[in-house]
Structure formats: C-alpha cells, structure tokens
Amino acid sequence: MISDEANFKKRLASSDTCNIYMLFGKEAFLTKTYTERILKKYLQETDQELKEFNFLKLSEFRIDRLCEAVEALPVFAPFKVVLLADIDYDKLDSDTVKAFCTMIGQVPDTTILIISNVIVELDSSKAKPKKIIAAVEKEGVAVKFDYLSPAKIAQMIIKKSAKRQVNISKSEALYLTEMTLRDLTLIGREMDKLCDYAGKGGTITKSDIDALVTKRLDTGIFELSAAIIEKNTAKAFNKLNELSLQGHQPVVILSALGMTFADYYRIILGTKKGFSTADIIRDFAYPANRAWAVSKSMNVANVLGLAKVRTALKALNSADKKLKSSPVDSEVALQNVIVELIGVL
Fold it and tell me: Partners of 24 in the beta sheet?
C-alpha cells in the first residue's frame, strides 16, 4: 500500500525499521527531504570513514552492480544503505525489471534499499514502474508525494515565519503559494529572503511579496496576458521586462503566452458545453499546481469570447513561425506581437 506523507512521517520517526523504501511523486522537495531523513535514521555512525563504507549511491542502473551492493554486509554497523537515485525505470527492458523485482524480494535484513526519484519523474501509471512499486509494497513501503494543498502550504509558511519571529497573514501566505505554483523548494528560498527583509518582529506584506519574490514563468505569463487583455500597454511591457530580467528568452515567453491563450480557448469551449471549472481541470488533465490558472481564467476567457481568442492564437502562431524560421530580432518580434494583441482584443 502506498503510504501518505502524514503516516509515513510518523512511521519514520518511530523505532520501526524497514528494509526497502520507494519515494517518488510530483513534489520533489518532499521526496528529497524524506530521502535525507531515511539516510539520517540508518547512517548514525559518527565516524565518517565508517559512513562511507556503509553507504553507496547508484545513479546508473546495472542489476549485477545493484545485487552486489545489496548483498554486501555492513562494516561495524547494523545496516548497509544503498540509494538508487533518479532511474528512469520505464526505459529498462522487461527482463531487467523482472530481475529487479525478484531482487527486491530478497533484500537481506542488514541492508536498507532506498529507491528515490527526485529529479527524474516516475510515472506510476506505466506498466514497468507499476510492477516495481508492487514488488516494493510487498516487502517495504512506497510513498507518492503529490503537491500539497494551498491551505497546507500556507500553514507551513506561517509556521516558518513564526520561527523567524516574523508575521505573515493567511491571505499573504496563500498569495505567496499561488505566486510560486506550490513549489516548496522555491517557497523555502523566497521565505528566507522575505523574513530577512521584514526583520525580527516585522510583517511580510503583499507589496513585499510582489517586490521580492521571483515569480514562476506561468505566473508572470498570466499577468502579462491579463495586461494585454486590459489593453494596458505600459503594464504589459513592464511585465515583459520583468520576465526578460529573470532570464526568460523571447521564444520561451511567446510559447508560454500561446499556452495561456490556449487555456482561454479550452475554457470557453468547456463553458459553452456547460462544464464546470472542476470538469475542465479534470478533462484536460491540468496538474494540481496549475488548477489555479483555470479558476482565474474563467471570467477573463468568457469576457474575451471565442472569436478574439482565435485571432490571438493566429497572431501568436504567426509570430512563433517568424521567430523560428527567419533571422528576425526576437525581442522586437515579441514586442510587436504584444502590440498586435492589444490592438485586436
């Protein structure tokens, strides 16, 4: 059974031991955090040389090397720890997956095998990863870390700021969650910056967040599209400048802008057929951390209307072709299409 994060946290903190752990999911920060906690639990030697003897990290999958590592005995310690990091299991051949599953059922009591995917995403719906997860569940514990809810992340932000003796309201914590697309790694960095700025006993405000937080591309693009739709040229070019200063290339900005208007197109078609926000999110398979884009786009899309969104998509597609097929100045081309969009919407 795939354990949830809350139950897994309690189990890991207890004295119970487990020989096989498998950690994966959309939330890379939690996957990394709990991988480190497992290592800390089982690698308790104070002698650094002993730790090195009893720990092996493998980032390339070779079944013979893995079997050898798993079967090795610990040196003056209760456990040998083997970390299998960021393997794309869907690319393994069927015989290797079968051998791996057999090996999982034979891990000795003196070995802790950690299968962790922080960088390389593991798709648990595919056949090969599914077989491996099933094998792990028989012998140990598999944990899938999905995105936390905005309310849960806001609570974490409030607790983190309280530890720094800095105040932040729930509404501001939720705003920060939205701005960072629920990216816990980014939130951690931005909270350190905001707490340093507010100072001990200070308060983090919305204006502080707007001024200091590095916005995710999706968030910045949504704000750019909103300025275009408002026909606010100055605001649109300010948003474009922000994105450029953050290092986003014109072709990337243009592509993301096209995706945003494609969102508007889907929403209009969906609402015309009587679909709710939840229906559209589900039917178009929006990831959990982008559901906010649909919710915020509902009113905007329906005010625009289908004809204007089609015109915008044609203009964006034409600009994209120019950028990729002719020697034009990419920044000028992007600025031109923004002026064109403001004129036709």
Answer: 144
Residues contacting 224, CB < 8 A, separation 6+? 236, 239, 240, 243, 253, 257, 338
Homologous superfamily (CATH) of 2-144 is P-loop containing nucleotide triphosphate hydrolases (3.40.50.300)
| 190 close to 166: Cβ distance less than 8 angstroms | no
DSSP one-letter code for 60: S
- For 121, phi then psi, to 5°, come to -70, 135
pLDDT in tens, 251-297: 899 999 998 899 888 888 888 888 888 888 888 878 777 777 777 77
pTM listed for this prediction: 0.69
DSSP annotation of 253: H
Residue type for position 105: G
Both structure tokens of 305: 């209307």
- Give, rounded to a whole angstrom, the gap between the first and last alpha carbons of the chain: 51
| Rounded Cα gap, residues 339 and 312, in angstroms | 11
Instruction: Say how far apart CA 332 and CA 227 lie, in whole Å.
Output: 18
**Spatial distance between the Cα atoms of 229 and 219, rounded to a whole number of angstroms:** 16
Per-residue tokens: 289: 């951390």
**150-212: in CATH 3.40.630.30:** no
Token pair belonging to 234:
């100055």
| Residue 5 tokens, joined | 């994060």
